[in-house]
Amino acid sequence: MIYRYCGKSGIQLPVLSLGLWHNFGSVDDISVATQMVIKAFDSGICHFDLANNYGPEPGSAEKNFGCILKKHLACHRDEIFISSKAGHDMWQGVYGTGSSRKNLIASCNQSLKRTGLEYFDIFYSHRYDGVTPIEETMQALIDIVRQGKALYVGISKHPPHLQQQCYDILKEAHVPCLLSQYRCSMLDPKAKQNNFDLAAQNGSGVICFSPLAQGLLTGKYNQGIPAESRAACSTGFLQESQVTPDRIEAVKKLTLIARERGQSMAQMALAWVLADERVTSCIIGTSSAAQLESNLQTLDNLTFNEEELQHIDTIINHPELWF
């Protein structure tokens, strides 16, 4: 495994982190989830990314991870970096969503109970809700650290015009932002332009999610939409309408470059995100230990020559392709 420092901190993370957004909930096979977590840890992936609403059902990914940790990895707790987040819809009523102090602190307490942990290594504001003053949200994160419920804090999906305010408030309180989490992929490079530099200037690491564009960058949709794929599900985050002919054509062209590099399309897509030196880690989501092993093989070739980068750029540098 390769490790990188989080901005201007002493914390290192593996360049590939395991996300528990999908495939670790109550509707999934706990034995398969267990295999993936143990395989990840044995391979050097010591960072596991959670959120209070991960499942489905919401909260069940934290419960399952807590059970796996207690049964198989409890003695390794100090070798593991565990995150959780709050801010999206979680429970009924006006306090079960958003960026308020009430929601963040209640969510953190609930998440600790579900996982059975004494503390999180990092706790994030999962989103900006468009209403709550940033001062309130950041103070809640500061107090979560001061209460011993998290060692570090981070922000996720906060708009560029508010990032600097977040960083300034946290820095002034001596609880600097350890990580800024944003969606980034070949089909969604906006965060590179809008967020990465500001994070780096403020000493924050960057961690990216959805590097495979919800599966589009694996090539699985090149010949149509598989019956059991995310795009085939009406409630999935990748909708059938997003699997456009132009995007599929771009992926087919990118696949040819990946083959020349001796990689799968997914491996090249991960390598492309990690080629940016501002990126600390990339969150992968897997459905099996075999898929996890394939993603780990990305580390065999993380470098691109200038010709490859230019060729890739000519394919993806079209805003109509971006999410």
What does this structure look like?
By secondary structure, the chain is of the alpha/beta class. It has one domain: TIM Barrel (Alpha-Beta Barrel). Helix content is 39%, strand content 15%. It is built from 11 helices and 10 strands. The chain has an 8-stranded parallel beta barrel, surrounded by 6 helices. A two-stranded antiparallel sheet has the order 1-2. α8 (245-261) runs antiparallel to α11. The protein is globular and about 50 Å long.
On the 0 to 100 scale, the average pLDDT is 94
Number of domains: 1
**Separate helix tally:** 11
Number of strands: 10
Low-confidence stretches: none
Report the β-strand fraction as a percent range.
Answer: 15-25%
- Most strands sheet: 8 strands, parallel, barrel
* CATH A-level architecture: Alpha-Beta Barrel
Backbone shape: globular
* The named CATH superfamily: NADP-dependent oxidoreductase domain
Quote the CATH topology: TIM Barrel
Strand order, sheet with most strands: 3-4-5-6-7-8-9-10
Distance between the terminal alpha carbons, to the nearest Å? 30 Å
CATH class: Alpha Beta
- Give the helix/strand class: alpha/beta
Radius of gyration: 19 Å
Taken in chain order, the helices and strands follow as EEEHEHEHEHEHEHHEHHEHH
Helix content class: 25-40%
What is this structure's SSE topology?
Layout (H helix, E strand, L loop, with lengths): L2 E3 L6 E3 L1 E4 L10 H13 L4 E3 L10 H14 L7 E6 L14 H15 L4 E6 L8 H13 L3 E7 L3 H13 L4 E7 L6 H5 L1 H6 L3 E5 L35 H17 L3 H10 L4 E6 L4 H8 L9 H11 L7
Parallel strand pairs: 3-4, 3-10, 4-5, 5-6, 6-7, 7-8, 8-9, 9-10
Antiparallel strand pairs: 1-2
Helix pairs in contact: 1-2, 3-4, 4-5, 8-11
